[in-house]
Amino acid sequence: MKDKLEKIKEEALDALKDLNDLENLEDFRLKYLGKKGELTKILRGMKDVSPDERPEIGQLANKIRGSLEKQLIEKKDVLQDKALEYKLSQEWVDVTMPGRRPARGSLHPLTIVRNEIIDIFMGMGFDVADGPEVELDYYNFEALNIPKNHPSRDVQDTFYINDNILLRTHTSPVQIRTMEQEKPPIKVIIPGRVYRSDEVDATHSPIFHQIEGLVIDKDVTMADLKGVLDTFAKKMFGEDTRTKLRPHHFPFTEPSAEVDVSCAICHGEGCSVCSHTGWIEILGGGMVHPKVLQNGGIDPEEYSGFAFGMGLDRITNIKYGIDDIRLLFENDIRFLKQF
Ligand code: 2NL
Questions:
Q1: pLDDT for the residue numbered 117
Q2: Whose CA is nearest to atom 8 of ligand 1?
Q3: The whole model's pTM is what?
């Protein structure tokens, strides 16, 4: 019995010496120390050992078991260290290598120009407001004094969701909403995306952008409109820029005007940017129609106001010499990288 135990011990120690990877450790443990292992088998045979010898054999078996368990743990530590060392040698990172430089984005030209325009008007004390792009017919047309038979209300020109709901065709509905919610004095600009059912070409896109302004207070006049727009034009296009109002018609303002600025490229001499006129049309505006004030809950006897609107896409194109509006929406990286 003793010999058998010693033999198992020798055999186990030899096997352990040859063990070189973690997976075989468990096999080893099962073979020698497990419930069905060699040592257990021997101990089961204890009943055949004479009672005199039992304590000695038992002690020896436990000693061998203890020693094997200890050496198994030591071996496991060694192999785990080796495995980690191997893994680290395979997965090392050279922290001194230069990093991969992330591609840096830039602001879209429309965003740059929008921010610039917002800055200019905020400098004159305007707040910025916004509102829904999916609008009620009431706010987009009715409240703005645009009659039912007006061509812009045609399904050919406006994207309708249903009879009462549409994609806003201008940012003016936000001006009405502002009048409803706030008491004069009101001084806001509203930048935003607008929609019209236009065929795409170099100057038309079904999605484009407007910035509108609204000022309402006591004794506001057309002279205030001219002064604000003149200041804006000078800050936007240069201090020597001049502004010209031409009579026009909008249903929501009376009187109304279209506004030209002197060409910043040729300073009025005439060039291809201004079609050799020396002037560039950049916006429209006028005194808010009394009916529109009333629709916004403001008494036209007590208050007056002016409003104006400009196309952000057009101003961006003029500013950067972009000759096709489609470039603003295609998001070709070669185009966007230039800003
Ligand atoms: C243009 C001209 C304009 C307005 C927009 C407006 C809004 C209200 C009342 C009165 Cl609530 N007017 N907006 C007025 C005149 C002109 O836009 O050429 N936009 C691109």
A1: 98
A2: 172
A3: 0.74
